[in-house]
Model the fold of this input.
Amino acid sequence: MKKDKLQHIKTTKPGFKVPKGYFDTVEDAVFTKLSTEEFPEKEGFSAPDSYFSDLEDNVLKKIQGEKSSKQTGFSIPKDYLQTVEDTITARLDDANRPTKVIDFKSVILKRIIPFAAAASLLLFVVVKYNSKTVGFDTVASAEIEQWIENDLIALDTYEIADVYKDIELENSVLFSEDENELLEYLDGTDIESLLIEN
Done:
């Protein structure tokens, strides 16, 4: 699809055409357009009378006036130099005055410890109220079987032997070392019935 569009672009001619004789007549068309428009007779800006003849004198007077003025840009308050020392010492005395210091221990003892005690008491009550002991007596045997099947409880052979002490395992084909004898036994017996019996 992209190749078709690219080929179409290559084969088409440019989208703009210049009329015949355009560049020969464009200059005449611009001049006729300008001559037909009406321009204002008065210009937008006007200079005051004798502006250019007096300009140099005005600039020199301004420069000389700035040089001759003895007034600076800053003024000092009356009796400033006589009172500055007293003002500075008064501010230093204020800065040397002991500042109020808040003891961090008192803040903890007064504000944070009561909140911590209340929170721990509340936590104790909630835990005590919601605690329910779960033992094997309350858990259904179906749930225990499901846990064992899903490998949520790991049992090894020693734990199973401790639970079933009263059941004796007899020497049968299951404990035989011959593989063929074991396969014949398993083919001839119903495994589900063996599981139900034990």
